[in-house]
């Protein structure tokens, strides 16, 4: 069965040969390919080469085009707020944030992802993967979510303060960030992406009230716009950290795959999302993937599968460390290959979770 059909089958509730596996591999992929991470982030050909290699060597069910949080930022505002590091790629410096002066927002334009720039570089990596894979293996494009991009332009501490002190500015900035995400997603889909992942990591730091007022409506706008223009594309929501308090509201988003980090209580998330929403991940990137053994990784993958039931994709919920033993990744993939989605019904959480 083609890996892309396997993923689509799980989302649709259809019978597939075994569970899909879509761990988030970025630094791990570059290290496995012998490529410096700064080159992985700068050169779409090397990003594609690394992703294709982990697919071929490990049997992962997707190539993942995520690499760093500064692609949109640099194309919008230049690289004055960015420091390039050999082993990490571009790091955004809060003290040099592009929107230290809020009035600068009126000068920003939505970049054209088809012109030379870092957004275009990712589009090219998708085109390379499409030529190599021909639609057999899922190609996951990636955009920064509205709060994530707002935070990257303004600075994390400032945007959190702005949410309370200047919500009008936050709404204006979220409007702009949403338009960037919509345009960028469409360019990646046109290049061959069958899935769009949207990362909004900073949202896990916002409480339910502010999430409902100043984050959720813009996430919905982006996702609904992509869904309307590209109805066959899968939508994948990624929010690092513990989002347990936000899950009931996240359940209203038009999302096909919820990628949940290991700090989130998986049983409570399954209860809030309902039995037939697809959950990806939740295996610990630290105690299992990095510090564990193949046996403990398989046991963790089994626990997640037992909790989620048939609507499940095996993964870690956030980026797998480049220092994780390759045999631990092989154990994760092996678990997926040896189990059908319907091996377990979704667990019923105990009262009070």
Proportion of helical residues: 40-55%
The CATH topology assignment is TIM Barrel
CATH class: Alpha Beta
Strand content: 5-15%
Tell me what the CATH architecture is: Alpha-Beta Barrel
Whole-angstrom Rg: 19 Å
**Most strands sheet:** 7 strands, parallel
- Unreliably modeled segments: 349-353
Give the beta-strand count. Answer: 9
Mean pLDDT across every amino acid position = 95
User: How far apart, in Å, are the first and last alpha carbons?
Assistant: 37 Å
Give the strand line-up of the largest sheet: 1-4-5-6-7-8-9
Which terms would index this structure?
single chain, 353 residues, alpha/beta, TIM Barrel, seven-stranded parallel β-sheet, two-stranded antiparallel sheet, 16 helices, 9 strands, 11% strand, globular, disordered C terminus
What would you say this structure looks like, in words?
With 353 residues, the protein is of the alpha/beta class. The chain is built from 16 helices and 9 strands. It has helices spanning 3-12, 27-33, 37-42, 44-58, 71-77, 118-133, 146-154, 156-165, 167-191, 208-214, 216-229, 247-250, 266-273, 285-290, 294-308, 326-337, and strands at residues 62-64, 82-85, 89-92, 138-144, 195-199, 234-239, 257-260, 278-280, 312-313. Strands 1-4-5-6-7-8-9 form a 7-stranded parallel beta sheet. A two-stranded antiparallel sheet has the order 2-3. Helix 7 packs across helix 8 (156-165). The two termini are 37 Å apart. Residues 349-353 have low confidence and may be disordered.
